[in-house]
């Protein structure tokens, strides 16, 4: 049995992580840490877990009691936490922040997109979980990059649900602003572009073209719907063959023969990819649940790989029709 600890347990990603781990056949949750909620019942904050767990948040982490540590803190805080706390070397770490996604000689975290680096993740001790937008967009680009077929500028239009902004309320997340509304933010400069470019160049080292990314805030709680297009001589049938071959061993990524909709992935760890051809332009639709395949579900997928488990263990979550 794997003993797991969670640091920063009060937010959305931690809540989803708890929901998965409570029902994981090979995991026992040892403790959940939160500075802001210490002493409270976990189910009092993550109310959907009422009757599922009787854990309480605690102020301190207890590294000696765990095999794996999930860091669910805000961006920038994981690096500070690890510099201030001595986590035993034998404890594996999965960080859900952006702090270690850029590969560097300054740290030993492996970028944790299983569809790209499954074998490296299996041998790692520390994993940097990918960003949600980055995951969805990479699912659209990596099969082409592997075959050296990103030969023109890439254009990406993606819409994310409000949970992508985290639990803390802000001017652009509260219901009265977000409902019946849509807006672009961080046009062409979103922070996930760095990790997307890094991954693309792992497969196609000479790629030096633009990835023009327009992120949008959607008026729904969860999910990311991405449409990507580029000019190419690649024919639709060959593109489909390349995508199906690339994802043949991936338990959560599926190539849809028909134009999909976002509800097919919400509340699951799935990624769905759909290809369409328009007079020299290849359109790639890709979608995920931002809190699962884009965060906590992928973190558990990485944990399974770290400990030699079935990659899909505890993650066969089913979507809702409505």
Automatic annotation (TrEMBL):
UniProt keyword Cytoplasm present:
yes
Q: What is its EC number?
A: 1.2.1.38
What is any Pfam family matched here?
Semialdhyde_dhC_1
Which residue stretches, if any, does this entry annotate as coiled coil?
A: none
Q: Which GO terms describe its molecular function?
A: N-acetyl-gamma-glutamyl-phosphate reductase activity; NAD binding; NADP+ binding
Q: Where in the cell is it found?
A: Cytoplasm
What sequence ranges are listed for the domain Semialdehyde dehydrogenase NAD-binding?
Answer: 3-124
What PANTHER family does its record include? N-ACETYL-GAMMA-GLUTAMYL-PHOSPHATE REDUCTASE, CHLOROPLASTIC-RELATED, N-ACETYL-GAMMA-GLUTAMYL-PHOSPHATE REDUCTASE, CHLOROPLASTIC-RELATED-RELATED
What name has this protein been given in UniProt?
Answer: N-acetyl-gamma-glutamyl-phosphate reductase
Q: What is the lineage of its organism?
A: Bacteria, Pseudomonadati, Bacteroidota, Saprospiria, Saprospirales
**Encoding gene, per UniProt annotation:** argC
